[in-house]
Amino acid sequence: MDDRPSLGRVNAVMGRAHVAAIRGDQETALALVGEGRRVFDIAGSDDAESDYTVPWWRFNIFSSLLAARLGDERLADEVQGEADRNLPAGLPRFRTHLEMHRGLMLVRQGDPSGVGYAQNALDQLPPEKHSLTLRMLMEEIRAAG
User: Fold this and answer.
1) Alpha helix (H) ranges present in the chain?
2) How confident is the model over 31-58, as a mean pLDDT?
3) What is the pLDDT of residues 73-113, one digit of tens each?
4) Scanning 2, 49, 66, 124, which has the fewest C-beta atoms within 10 Å of its C-beta?
5) Per-residue DSSP letters for 82-110?
6) Alpha carbon distance 45, 56 (integer Å)
7) What is the pTM of this model?
């Protein structure tokens, strides 16, 4: 991967940040999310509603999951607030992601009710909108709970 700012680089750096978070390496994960933000500031997409763009709201959804995986409540509150304010109303699947991230945060903080919170969020979305990513996230939350 070269150093030129691009959406591909944003996705790759954020992917690496999530791997670090899953491995419990908070320092590396936070450094990578900072790098991802710097690349995003140069290469981020407009607000087009597409699975292939990375507008500000979507970058914050990436960061929300990372914060939940780390159990970093301060970061989660910040990025979830930004995502909530900027997420287009016509994308309920991404709103479900945010709610499920909140459930994961509860679980990471030792509150087993986070599993039910996340499941309830998923249940509010029509089953045909349940993506593989959402199903995998639910499994991660159950395993953490």
Assistant:
1) 7-22, 26-43, 56-70, 73-86, 92-108, 113-124, 132-144
2) 86
3) 999 999 999 999 999 888 899 999 999 999 999 999 999 99
4) 2
5) HHHHHS-TT-HHHHHHHHHHHHHHHHHTT
6) 8
7) 0.91
